[in-house]
Design goal:
With 170 residues, the protein is α/β, with parallel strands linked by helices. It has a single domain (3-152, 161-166), classed as 3-Layer(aba) Sandwich (Rossmann fold), CATH 3.40.50.10420. It is built from four helices and 13 strands. The chain has helices at residues 3-19, 21-25, 42-48, 121-126, and strands spanning 28-30, 53-60, 63-69, 75-77, 83-85, 91-93, 100-103, 107-109, 114-115, 132-136, 142-143, 157-159, 164-166. The strands form three sheets. The chain has an eight-stranded mixed β-sheet with strand order 6-3-2-1-7-10-12-13. The chain is globular, with a radius of gyration of 15 Å. The two termini are 28 Å apart.
Amino acid sequence: MTYDEVRAGSQIITEQIVALPQWQTAETVCVYLSFGKEVATHALIRTALSEKILLAPRIEGMGLAWHHIKRWEDLEAGPLGILEPNPDEAEQVYSPRPDLILVPGLAFDRAGHRIGFGRGYYDRFLVTARGYKLGLAHDWQVNTTLPSEPHDIAVDAILTEKQLLSCSAG
């Protein structure tokens, strides 16, 4: 996909997210800060800063530390070049209890399994996370099946430009 196609698809997905009952009723949302050709979340985050309690991840050691972001200026470039909360500006939330978790991935299957970037940050978080797990993907990122391990945590649903897939494993 070109970056223009990513932007156009991401805009459609963003419009669909805000129409979902899970978004409309959620008070606290775990978001990811997109990069590359992931479904772009920056516009959604900018809009939702005044509407929701947004928790964004920061890589700390082998895990994710979640911080409450209140302003776009609370973010800075992290070690992997991905925006993340500046710990001096955004308060850390030690036991997040989100209503909705937006989950990134390189690929998803129809059962809700995902392939990430291979470092396991989200896998370790999702093991104990409560809340509706919504994978965001471009339609071409959804496959019939993917390899999965018994410890993998599936998402509840996947939202693409063309569909909302309820997942059997999630």
